[in-house]
Amino acid sequence: MFGFLSSITSFVVFFVVSIAIAGEHFVPITSYRTGPYGVSGAPAADGYVDYLKMINARDGGVGGVKLAWEECETAYKPDRFVECYERLKNKGEAGATVFQPLGTGLTYSVIDRVAADKVPLITMGYGRTDASDGSVFPWVFPLMANYWSISTAKIKFIGEQEGGMDKLKGLKIANVYHDSAYGKETLPVLLKQSEKYGFELKGFPVAHPGLDQKATWLNVRRYKPDYVILRGWGVMNQTAIKEAARARIPANKLVGVIWSCSELDTVPAGKAAKGYNCSSLINPGSNYKVFDDILKYVHDAGEGTGDREEVGHQQNYKMGVLMGIMTVASIEKATEKYGNKPMSGEQVRWGIENLDFTEAKLKEMGIEGLIPAFKVSCSNHEGNAPVKFQRWNGEAFEPASDWISTDQSIVRPMIEASAAGYAKEKGITPRCN
Amino acid sequence: MFYREAGQFKTSYKKDQAILPIFQDKIAMVAMLLFCFIVIPLFANDYWLASILVPFLALSLAALGLNVLTGYAGQISLGTAAFMAVGAFASFNLQVRVPEIPFLVAFLWGGLCAAGVGILFGLPSLRIKGFYLAVATLAAQFFIEWLFTHFDWFTNYSTSGVITAPPMTLLGLAIDNPLSKYFLVLSIVVICAFFVRNLARSEIGRAWMAVRDMDIAAEAIGINLMKTKLLAFGVSSFLCGLAGALWAYVVLGTVEPQAFDIARSFEILFMVVIGGLGSVSGAFLGAGFMILLPILLNNLGSLITGGTISTETIAHIEYMVFGAFIIFFLIVEPNGLARLWQLGKEKLRLWPFPY
Question: Which of A354, B78, B170, B314 has the least CB density, counted as fewest CB within 10 Å?
Answer without folding.
Answer: B170
